[in-house]
Amino acid sequence: MVTATATAAPLLSVQGLTTIHGEAPCAACVALTGPEADRNQCPECGSIVACAGVSFDVWPGEVLGIVGESGSGKSTVLQCLYQDLQPAVGAAYFGGFAEGQRSIWDADRRERRELRTQSIGMVYQNPRQGLNLMVTAGGNIAERLLDANWRRVGDIREKASDYLQRTEVPLPRMDDFPAFFSGGMQQRVQIAKALANSPQLVLLDELTTGLDVSVQAGVLDLVRDIQRDYGLTAVIVSHDLGVIRLLADRTLVMKQGRVVESGLTDQILEDPQHPYTQLLVNCAT
Amino acid sequence: MNKPLLSVAGLSKSITLHILQGKVVTPLRDITFDLYPGEFLGIVGPSGAGKSSLLKCLYRTYVPTSGSMRYRTEAGEMVDLATAEEREMIALRRREIRYVSQFLKPPPRVEAADVVAAPLAAAGIEQREARARADGMLERLGLPDSLRSSFPSLFSGGEQQRVNVARALVSPPRLLLLDEPTSALDSENRARVLELLLEAKRDGVAMLGIFHDTEMLEHLADRVLVVEEGRVAREGRVGEVEIPNYIEAAAVEFA
Questions:
Q1: Residue A230 pLDDT class (50, 70, 90 cuts)
Q2: What interface predicted TM-score (ipTM) does this complex get?
Q3: pLDDT at A210
Q4: In chain A, N or C: fewer CB atoms in 10 Å?
Q5: How much is the pLDDT for A55?
Q6: What pTM, to 2 d.p., does this model score?
Q7: Beta strand B66-72 with A48-58: parallel, antiparallel or unpaired?
Q8: Mind listing the pLDDT tens digit for each residue in A166-215?
């Protein structure tokens, strides 16, 4: 039997991630913000501390949840991992990059592009960010596969139709523009696009927010099926505890840019330790 | 030669309710016991005595406040379940430790047979094979064919309870935690669960079971822990240790 302790390294190890938005952050920014101060804006210089000192590991085959209210910094963490934002401080070692020896935030432009297009998939809350709405659904997926160095048109088309089918996008719509799709269908195309080249790590940001309940169920079932069939490794950000309960093995709780608590998902939900988590769990309907 | 599978020592659990002005409740105080492979330890006590909290600590749904819960893994390593890393707990839950909660929280829109097959699928068993074994287990528990392919969220309490038991026993665990697994069952279905649990016991599965039904304990339990106000009040063999009938006692109070 292979015990947990005997298995290799985490796929992703984030250490001390700190992101500050502002013209000239001062030395007091981190000390004067956070859950105790109950603010994320530095009273000295007005900079916004989006997240500070965030550290966590993600192991292969595991889904890590991040919960917290709006503005808690959870999306910032994903944006940094997907290289949409460059953090002020911190390192992230990823098994799919430089054999985990260099931080992904020390990557050069070419390496960054490779990380985004080949190793990591991102599903944004708003499909507009992840899709080109005026390129066909099939074209969006083809774009991602071309970036990942797929070359044969026949293969690309076959893969695109395979993933659209899997995400239950009707095949006759493959050559239509997502601009004319419903929100739920756009989200499914975005998921198909993010997963089509089998990235090692998938980042999912509020993937059901803004969808009506029946469409939410369809999108969640899709992710759950993928999780079961392919052993997804993912970080999923949501303010919806139901989504976290359904998908995440472990969960981090964020408030005012800091991780205030982490644990097994059922423990976070049934025996929350931090006052904020207790409040969050007791607010759930 | 026969070493305990689980040694619990000085286990306590307090909960600080920050949303209730920092009120502290202490469901468990200084619990100590050993459990051997193939042994069934019954847990009895009045409502609110801390019985479920004990199982939740062992499964680490609750974080213990102090004490240790040393568990011997299949690989022969000693792991303190109180402080084990989260991913170690996840691995143990997948392979060795199962928990039948008092109420099933069925995942939405998943067929009963797939709920039961989930631990097999997680262990890498091929989907069709896993589903067939799950079907077989549900059949043994008397769940009709038509229900096996519908959603447990629509089931009665007793049907959900059988799905919960089936999921725990679909592949034999090494440690099984049972929280009133037969409370919603009629006598025929209770007998079916009893038969499966006796079989698991013969296969060497160690069990901790909360039962209000003393008849089940007489069939299953080697020893009984009587828990009152979070402490072990008494412990001993079934028939030798005094077990108050909490259900009848409560009925008298109501009368």
A1: confident
A2: 0.92
A3: 78
A4: C
A5: 98
A6: 0.92
A7: unpaired
A8: 888 899 999 999 999 998 899 999 999 999 999 999 999 998 887 888 88
For residue A100, give both structure tokens: 């985990």
Q: Assign domain B6-105+169-254 one CATH number from 3.40.50.300, 3.40.50.1240, 3.40.630.30, 1.20.1050.10.
A: 3.40.50.300
Burial of B22 (0-12, 13-18, 19+ CB in 10 A): exposed
Half-sphere exposure in the Cβ direction for B181 (13 Å, CA): 32
With an 8 Å Cβ cutoff, is B151 touching chain A? no
* CB contact at 8 A, A123 and A194: yes
Rounded distance between C-alpha atoms, residue A237 and residue B119, angstroms: 25
Q: What is the pLDDT of residue A6?
A: 42
Name residues whose C-beta falls within 8 Å of residue A120's C-beta, 6 or more positions apart in sequence: A81, A82, A94, A96, A199, A200, A201, A202, A203
Indicate which of B23, B60, B61, B171 best probes the interface with A, i.e. most A CBs within 10 Å of its own CB.
B61
As a whole number, the mean pLDDT across chain A is: 92
Q: Note whether B108 contacts A250, CB cutoff 8 Å.
A: no
Alpha helices in B79-111 (DSSP H): 86-95
Distance from CA of B118 to the nearest CA of A (A): 9
Q: How far apart are CA A183 and CA A180, in angstroms?
A: 9
How many CA atoms lie less than 13 Å away from A205 in the CB half-sphere? Answer: 22
Cα–Cα distance for residue pair A133/B178, rounded to 1 Å: 52
Q: Does B125 touch chain A (CB under 8 A)?
A: no
Subunit contact A270:B107, Cβ cutoff 8 A: no
Q: With CB atoms and an 8 Å threshold, state whether A264 touches B60.
A: yes
3 state SS of B85: coil
Span B187-207, average pLDDT: 96
Which residue of chain A comes nearest to B87, CA vs CA?
A4
- Domain ranges for chain B: 6-105+169-254
Q: What is the mean pLDDT of residues B75-94?
A: 96
**Residues 6 or more apart from B194 whose CB is under 8 A from it?**
B182, B216, B219, B220
